[in-house]
Write a structure and sequence with these properties.
The protein is mostly helical and 45 residues long. It has one helix spanning 2-44. The chain is rod-shaped. The N and C termini lie far apart (67 Å). Belongs to the EcnA/EcnB lipoprotein family. This is Small secreted protein. Keywords: Cell membrane, Lipoprotein, Membrane, Palmitate, Signal.
């Protein structure tokens, strides 16, 4: 029983870490898109 609980805790931790990386990556992608739009607007002036 202890082994099962430990396995579930490890699996839950791995899933939580993967989700954090995914959200951080999405934030970086959105930020890069915003910078590209800002640069294009500056060049169009």
């Amino acid at each position: 029983m202890k082994r099962l609980i430990a396995l579930l805790l490890v699996a839950a931790s791995a899933a939580a870490l993967a989700a954090c990386n995914t959200v951080a990556g999405a934030g970086q992608d959105i930020s890069s898109g915003g910078h590209a739009i800002s640069n294009t607007a500056e060049q169009a002036k």
